[in-house]
Amino acid sequence: MMLWLMAGLLFTPLAWGVFTLLVSFRYGRLISWLGMALQMLVSLGLWALVARDGGFYYPLGGWQAPLGIELRVDGLAVTFVVMTALVASASGWHASIYLDPEKPWHRYFWPLFWFLWAGLNVVWLGGDLFNLYVGLELISLAAVGLVALGGQADALRAAIRYLMAALLGSLAYLLGVALIYGQFGSLSLSGITEALETGQVQAAPFVAVVLMLFGLALKTALFPMHRWLPPAHGIAKSPVSALLSALVVKASFYIAARVWLELGHYLDGYVLSQLLGVMGGAAVLWGSWLAFRQEKLKQVVAYSSVAQIGYLFLLFPLTWNVSEAISLQAQQGMTLQVISHALAKSAMFLAAGNLIMSVGSNRVDALVGVSRFLPFSLFSFGLAGVSLMGLPPTGGFAAKWLLLQASLASGQWWWLVVLLLGGLLSAAYVFRVYRASFLETTEVDEFYHPPRSLEVIPMLLALLSLGLGLMAEPILSVMTIPFRAGGGL
Amino acid sequence: MTSGALLPFFALMSSLLASVVIFALPERMHRLRVLINLGAAGVKVLLVGVMIWGISEGQQYELAFDMVPGVQFVLRADALSMLFAGLSAVLWLLTTIYAVGYLEHSPNRSRFFGFFSLCVASTTGVALSGNLFTFFLFYEMLTLSTYPLVVHRGTEKALKAGRNYIIYTLTGGAVLLLAIAWLHGLVGDLSFREGGHFADVDAALHGPLTIIFILLIAGLGVKAALFPLHGWLPQAMVAPAPVSALLHAVAVVKAGAFGIVRVVFEVYGLEAANAMGLLFGLALVAAFTIIYGSVRALYQVDLKKRLAFSTISQVSYIVLGLCLLGPVGAAGGLVHLVHQGIMKITLFFCAGNYAETLGVHRIDELDGAGQRMPGTSLAFTLGAFGMIGAPPLAGFITKWTMGTGALAAGMDWVLLVLVTSSMLNAAYFLPILHRLWFAGQHEPWPHERRWGRLETSGWLLWPPVVTAVLMVVAGLFAAMPFSPLAWVQLIVAREVAL
Q1: Which of A214, A246, A247, B203 is the most exposed place for a label (fewest CB within 10 A)?
Q2: Neighbours of B121 (CB within 10 A)
Q3: Which of A371, A427, A435 is nearest residue B170 as measured by Cβ atoms?
Q4: ipTM of this predicted structure
């Protein structure tokens, strides 16, 4: 059972990537629908398995670490696998209707989509630093290709800029990995912590960790290294923007978090963790402010991603040198923030795409009167906005609550300012969109009605992000499931 | 889970489900929408009635589950929550009837009624919340669901009012969240409990608890329109009349006042709050707001604006009553939660009728309206007399009880506030009544519409008449069981051990 699930999870996306490369957009779409259903089943199956039996290490092909590829299948990883399956299927489904099959270059959407998915699964499950690097590169290259799919000169420019940032980030990360390998002779995260635990290696790898975190933060578009993100996410096709904002930036953050949670407490990391937190806080405030100032709808959403990513980096100060309970609270808050942002942001990008399609302009003030003509998409946008503002009962609120509690309990009250002010600032940009759409003028505009299914998909995602807050407890209880006794190394 | 646990859940769901169904209905299906609206409102009145009966018999209704690690989602029906839930259930039914008539033939009705139901669902949630966390959840939901109602007209003015509303309330919400999170970090998850939690709290905690209390009141005071946090309320008058009626009488301001009641009675406890010296300051703010609102009301020429400032003043009666440190004063404050709701909704219904039927918005245009619309004007007159505190109307019961309570607590200055406020009430209501009944009409109505035999549409006429009758009944039969006063005395007997 486990074998089939793991094989399905890792090899279906790769196989589907190759299949769809060979056929036209329409056939690719048919094949992909099947693939998405399959992935969904496999992901949920793995999640259920871990929820029932606990996590485990999985040596791919039977080869044990350090030689083979070792996968760590724990609660957090399967939670993100399911999140990916949900968001990627929704975006893929949306794309299959949204993208015009007549444009010849759109057929490349499917292979890129599947390679992206494969990369994501590798990152969630990867247990050693080099595999994580491979997954990360796969994601970056596929993502750059997807941005370039827009076709215009602007899209290519944004894609190139994105590529440069991604390559620089990868280089820094790889340098860090090389230093670690030189010091420890191992790349498996569990092997490294074991060496530190038993005192085989005395010196904590400070420089290597800083290099890795820098590279990963650049790829995650942490302030002030965020400049590449809004053009790329804003110009891409809406389903692509959804994938990029919801999943791709999370992959590099996830690696950073894993590295930090394994190695952070061996480091003399107060300054480093506070610095990362401050950069995150600045991202929240500055990103929200810039989102408020944007004139184009998708740019608003893209800058909002910069802001929302900032919250994630509060994980670093809130888990360093604190008690187990506080650290757990912060990790739970981070997990919820990742999931709820993924759901809400993909819903928002897809709904924004529908709104733009219907009014025929990408400007915020072109939305006048749209509340009367396209209430459904606007409602999805609005619900997703509620989650981004961190208002109850959404997942965003539950995440904010946990982070608030962790800040209070660890005595780092200064993060409260970020959390509360950030919520108000995000309300400012979300309500700017509502305001524009509620305005009634005498002009009667012609609105184009997108197909119904395009409107349903963002609504489902938005409802999930809303329900996440109410179901936070059961989801988080799976996230914290420990490894099965004796199942590890 | 017993069937009893499900009753509060169903009471919440009745309006939540109605909202979802209404959003899904196409704009043109007017009849079905009205039917669903009224059906859901009727079901809710019934459910709340059953729970009120059950609670008076000593039943418990509670639904709880873990929502976020360390925090429970609790829905509980107790005597206090039924006071508010009962008010909102009855007035929702009447306001729905009124809104159907008011918005006939206007656009965007699907959106309006969807959010309208959502707003009532939030209010019910606020009433039934069993701890501060759950309370906050519905409190913010209320903010969000009322925004589309305030900006419903879509004019620049409406959107400006909406923006101010949202700035005030969301900032208040953030302050409230800070206070709740801090309190949670300090003492853990606090469910509402009769008598409060801090009767014998460690003296070292007095400092933080005082700051948290101030933050809580500041966060709740925005919605309760305590001075100086009241700025959004008069502007929100651009909303359609049924929305103003609901905002002022049931939903928004009452949610704030109700939250203050919960915090003082069931989180801190009246005695503990007093022992920490928290109540005197609150009493001063409330007293000042009462006078300030009334003075400002005097200067308004727009009818709805005058009523809005009157609300600011009247809601603070509830807060002032709590600070009177005794069962009688507390009963006076609490009973005003209901009385003010019934009176104010009557007045807003009537103001809406004048605007819809005659096109009259300003007070000086009302000359002679009593002859043209006797039913509406009679209801308005009763409402105005109730506000002034003329016996035997509901408002009199409030002021009498509060006055007795103030004397019993030795806070004689409160009596002065009550008398001044009543005189100011008379000063801004009596001129309107004079214009209605004794001045002759000297110019044609600005924009008159006719509905057959009745003075206005039946949908618009009956709700204020019914609420006016309720007001008289609440005053005349205050001593009967299940009257608001009797119910409040039941609550106070459980809350206050003084």
Answers
A1: B203
A2: 28
A3: A427
A4: 0.88
